[in-house]
Write a structure and sequence with these properties.
Structural class: alpha/beta
InterPro entries: Glyas_Bleomycin-R_OHBP_Dase, Glyas_Fos-R_dOase_dom, PhnB-like
CATH topology of the largest domain: 2,3-Dihydroxybiphenyl 1,2-Dioxygenase, domain 1
Pfam families: Glyoxalase
Helix content: 10-25%
Number of helices: 2
Oligomer: single chain
Protein name: VOC family protein
CATH class of the largest domain: Alpha Beta
C-alpha cells in the first residue's frame, strides 16, 4: 500500500531529529547538507535533505530562509496497529523522552489501546493497537 511520507522542516535541528527517529524506529538514514547540494540559501552544514527509510519513514530538512519550521496543529502522525504491542509501547516510551505525554498508552473503554505523545521535536504521535 502506498502512503504519504511526512516531509518536515526543522528549525535547524534536522540532523538531531532524524537521528533520534532512527534510534527510536530503526531503519536507514541518509543526510545531505546544503554544502553537498551546492545550496547557498542556508548554512553549509545544515541539512538540505534527510531520508529515514524503515518501519517508520520520514523525510526532512532544516528550514531555509523562505520556509517555516514545523508547527503542527490539528495533525497527528498515526502509528495505529503498525507493529506488535511491545514495539509500539517501546516507540511510545522513546518518543515521550524529552516530550510530553498527552494521553498515556493504555487500554481504552472500547478494548483497544492507544496514547498520544508530543515528542521533543514537536511532532504529535497517536500510537495504539487492537485489544490484546
Amino acid at each position: 500500500m502506498t502512503a504519504p511520507t511526512p516531509y518536515i522542516f526543522f528549525p535547524g535541528t534536522c540532523r538531531e531529529a532524524l537521528e533520534h527517529y532512527r534510534a527510536v524506529f530503526g531503519g536507514e538514514l541518509e543526510l545531505h547538507t546544503y554544502g553537498e547540494f551546492g545550496r547557498t540559501d542556508g548554512p553549509a552544514d545544515d541539512i538540505a535533505h534527510g531520508d529515514l527509510l524503515g518501519p517508520v519513514s520520514l523525510q526532512g530538512a532544516d528550514a531555509g530562509a523562505d520556509e517555516d519550521p514545523v508547527a503542527l496543529t490539528g495533525v497527528m502522525l498515526s502509528l495505529l496497529g503498525r507493529s506488535d504491542a511491545a514495539t509500539l509501547h517501546r516507540w511510545f516510551d522513546a518518543l515521550a523522552e524529552g516530550g510530553t505525554i498527552v494521553s498515556p498508552l493504555e487500554r481504552r473503554s472500547w478494548g483497544d489501546w492507544d496514547g498520544i505523545v508530543v515528542d521533543a521535536h514537536g511532532l504529535r504521535w497517536l500510537i495504539g493497537y487492537r485489544g490484546a
